[in-house]
Amino acid sequence: MKIETRAIGIISGKGGVGKTTTSINLGAAFFYFGKSTTVIDGNITTPNIGVYLGLVNPPVSLHDVLKGKKPAHKAVHYHKSGTRFVIASLALKDMNAVDPRRLSKVVKELDGTSDYILLDSAAGLGKEALAVLEAVEEIIIVTNPEIAAVTDALKTVRVARDMKKDILGVVITKSNVKNPELPFEDIKAMLETEILGIIPEDRAVKNSHVEKDAVVHTHPRSGAAIEYKRLASKIIGIEYADKPEESITLFDWVAKFFGFRE
């Protein structure tokens, strides 16, 4: 029986906001809840997923598929965690003659092979990011609580709405509630979009990059891991309640106060 797949683009208007980290950890969190997930590195020019996971030289890369050399299923690689990844090549020679618009075809070829396909986008609104938007029906926008990041996220929201995409909501990463540049309520008002998740600034995330794995696996009781699992549970539509091992009482209080957590 064919699996009903949801393809979701992970988009950001600005680089460095934690989009790739969110893609990896949301995929890991879906897997935690028993959902098969394939994460595709749609950042064709400057890919990072392979670097973060230690999968820098895959035998078959996304670029091989985009060039028509290999079918999409041949580029699916299993990480030690169980999550599936389609890794883009880091080689400069592979950047030539690659049409990002073929990402839609890759997603269609992988439709029915996992519960979720997450397509990690390039930052901004260039042709690679627009190709990701074209390839999916649902999107999540990742931003930071900073005016420049939220302003760029607003542009992304407008483009996505013009393209008739279903915006599931916004994920705010690297949040430090003790000294936020923008309050969560202001971000919600500016973007006119639901805030799906608030990921705290957490050194465990940097440590997970060193360990070449998702923080959901390397530090499952950390604040960031708990919030990524909470985010996944919202998208799946299931109940999830847990507390991190390190107290983040102020973060919890602020999140509850603004209605972003039960």
Condensed summary:
The chain has 262 residues and is of the alpha/beta class.
Could you characterize the architecture of this molecule?
The chain has 262 residues and is an alpha/beta fold. The protein has a single domain (6-257), classed as P-loop containing nucleotide triphosphate hydrolases (Rossmann fold, 3-Layer(aba) Sandwich), CATH 3.40.50.300. It is built from eleven helices and eight strands. Helix 1 packs across helix 10 (223-236) and helix 4 (103-110) packs parallel to helix 5 (127-135).
Q: What's the CATH first level? A: Alpha Beta
Mean pLDDT across all amino acids: 88
Structural class per helix/strand content? alpha/beta
Radius of gyration: 17 Å
CATH architecture classification: 3-Layer(aba) Sandwich
Helix content: 25-40%
Silhouette: globular
What percentage of amino acids are in beta strands? 15-25%
Helix-strand string: EHEHHEEHEHEHEHEHHHH
CATH topology: Rossmann fold
Key attributes of the depicted protein:
alpha/beta; Rossmann fold; eight-stranded mixed β-sheet
Please write out the topology.
Blueprint: E1 6-11, H1 19-32, E2 37-41, H2 49-53, H3 62-66, E3 76-78, E4 84-86, H4 103-110, E5 116-120, H5 127-135, E6 138-143, H6 147-162, E7 166-175, H7 184-191, E8 195-200, H8 203-210, H9 215-218, H10 223-236, H11 249-257
Parallel strand pairs: 1-5, 1-6, 2-4, 2-5, 6-7, 7-8
Antiparallel strand pairs: 3-4
